Protein: Esterase
Amino acid sequence: MKPAYHYEIHLPSNMDPNKKYPAIFTLHGKESNEKNMFGLVAPLSEDFIIIGIRGDLTLGAGFQYYELKSLGNPIREIFDRAAQQLETFIGYATEKYPIDLNKRYLLGFSQGAILSMTLALMMGDQLKGIVALNGYVPEFVKTEYPTRSVEGLSVFVSHGEFDTVFPLSVGHETAAYFQKLTPNLTFKTYPTDHGVSEENQQDFVNWLKGDAGI
Structure:
């Protein structure tokens, strides 16, 4: 099978050939790429298999997974295709590499966070957890997608207090939505715009280590 996405994989340097490893799939924001995401999870690269997935649509000097009608309003058909292709890709990578089926994580920023949360609702306990940085769940995903229980899923949601793309209220709404669905929610805000601070990074790195039992 030829994967739908170009991707970059980082394997722990001293891999045990008889061991399965936890994995982090990273999803970037609009007009970015998989290399920009690796810096956020590099501190975890000796304990996790890290797979950076590049969006298959070009945008400026970077890439995206889907197009928008307007800010916060994805083109439904393209969004649906991206969500389905990403779910298939996660299955492909899990078969190809020594990934622990019970310790698969998604980590996304902005558009990547939106898709990470969507995939969590689609895949349920097939995932161990997600880290969603400065995103939201589209209304049509909440009301029209065939979602699965995320009660056992670990969810880390963070948002910039001065986010000029998605206001802080969006972060609070997203956290409130997941709080009703899982007891395993961590929600944090940081004094940033639409970005990821060092403190934010340290917090989710520690959270991922703890959740994966590392």
In short: The domain at 7-212 is CATH 3.40.50.1820 (Rossmann fold).
